[in-house]
């Protein structure tokens, strides 16, 4: 393949799945250089459709998933051995919380992971206070940090502190941030990592920005767009902070412009909300990225006193709504959804060999298989052989 012209090599590699692409990076240095060239990465990832993961906000042994490469093209459920929560996603990494007080950062494509202890400052909803940051250290490697934001002693103002974990232990940052009184907006769930900083949205519309590398923090004073509905998600699109808000007629996409000098929310796109009449009374936007929107609706059956929880995905590339199926009753009232685009990049601080005989490890293997499209049996066998060899 080294002798092929660049444009022909690209055609071949664009048809290669991520697992095979990651293997090529490990076996051939010239191919590794080509595959991890920013122009190739940008074009390759523009063609990848996102997987969808979901589970109960309270944690569950059931993980819902959709993989765009499966023939069924519908939501499926996998039962794991340990209760788990989905806390966040950033640049091909997942942040998970297993209900025995352990966090986990994992790259499902490369089958790498790192378990972390909990921060001593975790006093609120873990999904809101914890942020995952992933930076490119060179063309082939990334590094990650997990940041916990917490309120300090109560005074006339609100003061925040930050706890940082780069894979080994938690370090309390010397940086604190004093703000006018307002709480983190828990309806927006997880913070967003953009341009080197994690961003937490507060109830009054202001945004806390913290750079895990420089440990600089600041408050972005801004109001929410006028007429924003209660059905809104906080996201990152094209390396910009984004709000996606919907009513019964349209879905509005706002982007934050001039974040350093004169921050303003600017309406960038409106999408016809074409499925609300099919869903019923209660509906929610659950996730959004540059490729799709995930919307959940609760269709109530007044005769049987039950509720069918239906999931729809809007494909921004094909401009159409697709019915994904229903969410089972174990999900309770609140769900965490993550749109996941996998990455073959290696990450500093992640381990590759998984030990045997741990229920968290077994659950992690299954989740890895859901994300990259491989069967759980294949993942178990592969990682089992790796552990034996080690």
TrEMBL record:
<protein>
    <recommendedName>
        <fullName>F-box associated beta-propeller type 1 domain-containing protein</fullName>
    </recommendedName>
</protein>
<feature type="domain" description="F-box associated beta-propeller type 1">
    <location>
        <begin position="84"/>
        <end position="275"/>
    </location>
</feature>
<dbReference type="InterPro" id="IPR006527">
    <property type="entry name" value="F-box-assoc_dom_typ1"/>
</dbReference>
<dbReference type="InterPro" id="IPR011043">
    <property type="entry name" value="Gal_Oxase/kelch_b-propeller"/>
</dbReference>
<dbReference type="Pfam" id="PF07734">
    <property type="entry name" value="FBA_1"/>
</dbReference>
<dbReference type="InterPro" id="IPR050796">
    <property type="entry name" value="SCF_F-box_component"/>
</dbReference>
<dbReference type="InterPro" id="IPR017451">
    <property type="entry name" value="F-box-assoc_interact_dom"/>
</dbReference>
């Amino acid at each position: 393949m080294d002798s092929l012209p660049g444009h022909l090599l690209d055609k071949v590699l664009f048809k290669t799945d991520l697992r095979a692409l990651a293997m090529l990076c490990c076996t051939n240095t010239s191919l590794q250089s080509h595959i991890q060239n920013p122009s190739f990465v940008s074009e390759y990832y523009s063609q990848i459709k996102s997987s969808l993961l979901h589970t109960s906000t309270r944690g569950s042994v059931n993980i819902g998933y959709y993989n765009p490469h499966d023939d069924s093209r519908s939501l499926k459920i996998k039962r794991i051995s340990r209760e788990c929560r989905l806390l966040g996603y950033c640049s091909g990494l997942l942040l998970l919380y297993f209900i025995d007080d352990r966090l986990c950062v994992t790259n499902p494509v490369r089958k790498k992971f790192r378990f972390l202890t909990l921060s001593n400052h975790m006093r609120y909803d873990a999904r809101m206070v914890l942020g995952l940051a992933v930076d490119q250290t060179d063309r082939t490697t990334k590094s990650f940090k997990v940041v916990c934001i917490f309120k300090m002693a109560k005074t006339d103002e609100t003061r925040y502190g930050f706890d940082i974990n780069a894979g080994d232990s938690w370090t309390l940052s010397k940086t604190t941030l004093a703000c006018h009184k307002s709480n983190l907006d828990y309806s927006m769930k997880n913070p967003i990592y953009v341009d080197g900083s994690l961003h937490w949205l507060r109830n009054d519309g202001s945004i806390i920005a913290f750079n895990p590398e420089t440990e600089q923090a600041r408050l972005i004073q801004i109001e929410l767009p006028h007429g924003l509905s209660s059905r809104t998600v906080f996201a990152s699109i094209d390396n910009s902070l984004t709000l996606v808000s919907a009513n019964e007629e349209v879905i509005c996409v706002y982007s934050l412009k001039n974040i350093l000098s004169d921050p303003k929310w600017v309406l960038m796109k409106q999408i016809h909300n074409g499925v609300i009449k099919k869903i019923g009374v209660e509906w929610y936007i659950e996730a959004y990225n540059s490729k799709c929107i995930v919307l959940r609706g609760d269709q109530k059956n007044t005769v049987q006193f039950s509720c069918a929880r239906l999931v729809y995905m809007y494909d921004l590339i094909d401009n159409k709504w697709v019915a994904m199926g229903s969410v089972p009753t174990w999900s309770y009232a609140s769900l965490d959804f993550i749109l996941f685009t996998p990455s073959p990049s290696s990450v500093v601080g992640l381990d590759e060999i998984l030990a045997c005989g741990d229920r968290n490890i077994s659950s992690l293997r299954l989740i890895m298989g859901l994300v990259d499209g491989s069967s759980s049996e294949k993942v178990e066998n592969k990682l089992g052989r790796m552990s034996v060899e080690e």
